[in-house]
Amino acid sequence: MKTERKLISNVFYLFLAWTISAIFSFLFWWVVAKSTLPNEYGLISTIFNTTALLAGISILGLATTNTKLIPEYLEKKQIKKVSALITFTLKTVLITNIIFSLSIISFLFYFSEISFPVIFLIILLMFFISFANISNFILRGFQFMKKITITEIIGNVLKFSITLILILYGFKFYGPLIGLLIGIFVATLLRFKSIPFHLVSTKQLKKKYILLKYGLPGLIMTLSTILFLNGQYTILTFLKGTYETGIFTVAMILFTQIVTISKITSQGLFPLISQLNVYRNKKSKQQYLTNTTFRYTFLVCFPLMCFLILFAKPIILIFSSEEYLSASKLFPIIGIASLLYGCSQIFLTNLFAIGKTKIQRNILITSTLIFLLLTFPLTYFLSSIGISIAYAVSAFIIFSLSLFYNKKFLGVLIQKSSILKIFLAMLVVTSFLYPLIKIIENLILNFILVIISVTIFILILIPLKFYTKDDIRLLHFISSRIPIFKNQIKKIVNYFSLLVVKYS
Hints:
Blueprint: H1 2-35, H2 38-58, H3 62-75, H4 79-111, H5 116-142, H6 145-168, H7 174-194, H8 207-240, H9 242-276, H10 283-310, H11 312-319, H12 331-353, H13 357-382, H14 384-410, H15 416-439, H16 443-460, H17 469-481, H18 486-503
Helix pairs in contact: 1-6, 1-9, 2-5, 2-8, 2-9, 3-4, 3-5, 3-8, 3-9, 4-5, 5-7, 6-7, 8-9, 8-13, 9-10, 9-12, 10-12, 10-15, 12-14, 13-14, 15-16, 17-18
């Protein structure tokens, strides 16, 4: 149970960090959407996501490499190798960022009408995102998830508050970019202060081996992720303009949270799978942890996808304005795509963690090529719907192939009975929820309706015998970690446990 508790602890703190980030990101983009027109909103989105793409490339896959190798080095007591790996990573990323910065200055300054202050902000944003990602993944390698949560809170509070202040003072376009920069910079600085390492010689490392074995597949994984979650905005802007990108952004931002939840559970699992890889009798434990992680991920993400699709228009109005209501037509396609793509992250990171990096690389290259082949013609003819379809097809391919190889190497099997029970519970909820949505238009009543529906969904799974004794043990463990309303939560968990035992 020790490993399972570590998995839950990792996921708990990463989930908490995501919750804080999601709330403040929602508020951040809400303020931007409310204070700008779709063209300006689309331009800000394009700058941020294009910069994230460049930052992802500049890391050369070394972020994921740190999360993979640090747990193994620590398990083998090779402490000096940990410092050497971090030193090598920082030096490499610094050099690549300098090269990228010079290229950006040359290209944008001479071949576009973008002003120098904007170019300067783009370069700073690329630098900060690069090192923010590196520091985040290093802390994940150490499994210092609590420190990630604390720095995430501080960075997001700064990002939102500074953006809001600058927008109120008339910095409409520059406000969000400056807010992003300061928030990311402070969070990154605090993370590096938390990492127990010092700069050392990197002679003991097989640098070429690390770059080719883990760095290159990690880079391909990063590029693929950025293409699917960030690159779409750039493609859509290029083919159809910033207005259509603004509409598409609203839908993607909401459903990206499903992908993020899946990535949280996969990143909580990742260092543990790597750590277990040191031992001989590892397969059964890795298989159990993977099956458990997927089961909980689907339990959360599938209902979330359904609720977002059912309440599409009210959610859009809360998030932005009536000008963006046409984004609701994208919700079913992007919702299914995000669910498949998100769940596939668990299986992809597993392949990396057990050393099957070439197979993971080939899956990502195949799916990315298919996405690029589909996205340009479909986007040209069908606009945002076309790029959404291309995303869904590619997500299905990634999910299918990654699951196949997890089954082959780890014996991972999707628990069909659990999935069926989740489907049945959600079908019951939807059957009474859908007619009510048509009648009730008040946002507060809709929110209450969601709370009631979630409660019913959870309770329906009890007579369906979805929950197990392991679930109850984990619930008690989680309730002991929650800092507020501990007594009330324990009472609810105890009552819930009695119900589960009664129907088991």
